[in-house]
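seq as requested:
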Amino acid sequence: MYPRLVVDRDKLYHNACLIKNLCSRHGIEVVAVTKGYCALKDITDVILSAGIEKLADSRILNIKRMRNECINNYIMLIRIPMLSEIADVVRYADSVLVSEMDTLRSISEECVRQGRWIEIIIMVDVGDLREGIMPEDVADFVKEASKLRRINIAGLATNVGCIGGTMPDKDNISRFIEAVYSAESILGRKLPTISGGSTCTLKLIDDGEMPERVNQLRIGEAILFGINDVCGRDIPGTYKDVFTLEAEVVEVKRKPSKPIGEVGFDAFGEVPHFEDRGIRKRAILALGKQDVIINGIKPRHAGMTIVGASSDHLILDVEDYEGTIGVGDVIPFDITYGGLLSVSTSPYVEKVIL
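struct tokens:
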């Protein structure tokens, strides 16, 4: 059935092994981030088979589903939690990233109610300006957090390369390590988990600037795609085509390249613009914005370009494609991390592991 997402098991396993070994050589454990593919069990099983033991996801529903599927590995919740989901966080997660004292107090109270302990990892914002407390506030936060019951302050974490697009560098990772020392001075002990970032932080290994104290990275994109997209780097030796999106052709015709008549807003509230290139051969595929973020895919065949898409249809210009194409043909697409995020949440896209 189409559209479908095809996952190459062997290539995924290869990437997971390579990233694990790369980090292990520098004393860093890999926590595999499962949110990019909606924590689908068959994909997670391949990653775990590569020897990666810890998992992370941003959605408690994904973590709950993994537990119901008998995945008993250590799982970290990497989105700072909502107060409304604290009960499930305590019940299903082994650790959680936090940046708000009110949230931490709620977690502590819930741990008491459930008779459970949970690991707390404090998020520190070193410049990307998403979640996290500022480095200068770490000492006061840790001092207050240490008074709470049934929580284990396991470490500190940071993140760059997301909202602000801040690149990891020697300066911001140094600010993070200074925050670690500040927290440890308050607690009077060495913290076991120093989680220095995500895939983009692999850059510091490449550049020889990763501090020895960093002993964990939360990695998704490098395993899934073999790239460090924030830094614009490929990771040598990895496969870049683990995932293929396939869609079926439902119409092939020669048509004008520019709409006929007055152009207004499309179904998504935008005014489309089309270049007049004359009569062109076009293929319509049964794939649309309800299935995938269109700018997250690219036809794998040379000579095919995306003209546009509605909720259910994708239009390709195939005038320059040297092969033949007809109704019923299946067209493969390369897919980005953002494209995978959207495809994975769509019930209309079949997921197949080969």
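DSSP finds ten helices and 18 strands in the chain.
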